[in-house]
User: What shape does this take?
Amino acid sequence: MDLKMNLNLTPFQEPRGVMRVLQLVFAVCAFTTVANFSVDYTIDCQDFVPQKAKVYTIDYPFRFYENVCRRMSNNESLAITADVSTDAQFYVATGVLSMLYGLFIIFVYAFLDELYKSKNEIPLADFMLTTIFAVLWLSSSAAMANSTTALKNVLDPEYAREMCRHCPVVSNSGFNGLHSSLLIGFLNFFLWASDLWFVYKETYWFQTRQGPSQTPIS
Assistant: This one.
């Protein structure tokens, strides 16, 4: 079969092409926001020698164990510890795989759209992969939301103030970056789930349900 790869922008004037571009953009935004996010946890105790605030930087993949102060009730160390690396890596992996598939399918739409429409197997595979990515975005975003809550609880300044001796200054730099990434993650789920209808219309399942076109009798 002679395969001609001529640039064709017609699919990008249709919802299926526009959705692919949006999916690509927001997938990159989602995983880069998490991978580049860090939070500074600052604690200042009179017990420190020398007496100066200590800053702990918690970043991707959010696996840490730090002894930060002495407990108020005894002389034991108070540790802040968490390991949400599995959820964070799952979320980032979903974003990276979505980006790679987005680049691939955009190439197919742009240069191989005639082949895409002539082979029943290709739209069907596209539909199934779109379904898988919709499920991945929903599950990874939900997992990352749970992990964000766990991180916020561990790094809550009030907890350290209550548990530590002589530590009047405890703070963190905030979680706005993770909150933004979670919104984008659930937006990605919406984009991939919404795209199922437009991809489904390209499959032979939809086309056979429409039945053969009828020519009106004059």
About this structure: The beta strands are 38-44, 54-59, 63-70, 77-83, 169-172. The longest strand covers residues 63-70. The longest helix spans residues 121-154. The chain has seven helices and five strands.
